Amino acid sequence: MLQVAVFVCVGWLLSVCLHEFGHAIVAYWGGDTSVKDKGYLTLNPLKYTDFNLSLVMPLIFLLLGGIPLPGAAVYIDHRRLRSRWWKSAVSAAGPFASILVAVLLTISFRFGSSLPLVEYRWIWPALAFLIYLEVYVVILNLLPIPGLDGYGIIDPWLPPEIQERSRKFGQYGIFVLFVLLWFVEPFNRLLGEGAFSISQMLGIPSQMVGMGYRLFNEWAKVLLVVAIVIAIAVRQLTKKPHEKWYEQGNGRIRGRKYEEAIAAFDQAIRVKSDFPEAWYMRGYALLQLQRYEDAIAAYDKAVEIKPEYWEAWYDRGIALEIVQRREDAIYSYEKAAQIKPDFHLAWYKLGVQLNHFQRYEEAIAAYDKAIEIQPYDANIWTDRSAALGYLKRYDDAIAAGEKAIKINPKLFFAWYNKACAYAELGNVELAMENLQMAAKLDAEKFKENAKKDPSFDSIRHHQAFSKLIGE
């Protein structure tokens, strides 16, 4: 029946929108306010990063065989999220939204299927099939495959080297999933049976799901053609030329094709020269290509057009820091922190640069602001420990180092800074104990630093120290 096919497709598109909105709203709460500027909080499907992957492709898979492959998530800038917990929460938010949709649909089915709506009796098998699809996609999305939300939940907690490898593989994850679903029958059957079992636990009869699937399939192919035509027409009619180029550039960024991304952003800028987001993303792509001066010039244009563009000020600071224009970097980080005072990384980076100029009191004040916002970043505590050591506040330096180690016991400089403080206090035993831990974590870095560090001048004559540095 045509009504069933239309009902399921419209319901599915709305649920995908809610899924993507779930990612965006949690990202916004977690610190990435750029999702608001990109329009992700409007529930407008045309504002998503990739309309084809987020909406059209899931619909096509659904129409081809009732397999609702999840669409691409909205573009989240994970650097701006306050912690690993927020990164995991952003990934979990999509499946949670799908679970919520399934629950609401189930309530509607349970209370509505008994109503004597004879002329609308097709709606109940349609609703049953839609609930099954929602359950199926939750199971699917929670699989620990790079590119899916299930992997995104655990990714922040994995070692950095595994994270880097998985990001390279992530763009192919959806294709691996497609192959598994279409060509590995036991895998597909396992997911399908799991979705059926959960649907039955929710009170949805399997016969009703089957009926909904059969009625849906009667018009699926015709609706597929109509949906594609409508999607292309809407895409062409609603997007302005500079927006199309901008979105194409974002797509190339996700695929790590930075040269192609720059070309797309250049096209957007040619159409609309006062487009700050295009200048900013152009700067981001140039930064990834290590073309730092060009990146700085792009960020300069972005903040010239939009002075309150804190993301551009922050990334400008990163590029300036890399080329060792540190005073300019301080200014950029100060601007970012002034505009976005709850962005802890701006305060942290500001502290690092102030520390470089031996402005230790100011650096500690910046670190304290960062810690106030994000108390569980071990790097901030470690650098704060170093600044306190330079001020000869050794007890405070040790306390800060202990905070860092409690958060991340594998942080080399947290142990090393504590050893420096203990050595300055004349506590040889604890200095050596911490030095041994630092050496276990990174022997080469330890030797490179300890051999010339004046903090250890008072203990260099000790046999244990000489043995540890290999002298």
Give an account of the 3D structure.
With about 475 residues, this protein is mostly helical. The protein folds into two domains: about 1-240, no CATH class; about 240-410, Tetratricopeptide repeat domain (Serine Threonine Protein Phosphatase 5, Tetratricopeptide repeat, Alpha Horseshoe), CATH 1.25.40. The protein contains 24 helices and no strands. It has helices spanning about 1-30, 35, 50-65, 85-110, 125-140, 150-155, 160-170, 175-185, 185-200, 205-240, 240-255, 260-270, 275-290, 290-305, 310-320, 325-340, 345-355, 360-375, 380-390, 395-405, 410-425, 430-440, 445-450, 465-470. The longest helix is centred in the middle third of the chain and has 33 residues, at about 205-240. The protein is elongated and about 90 Å long.
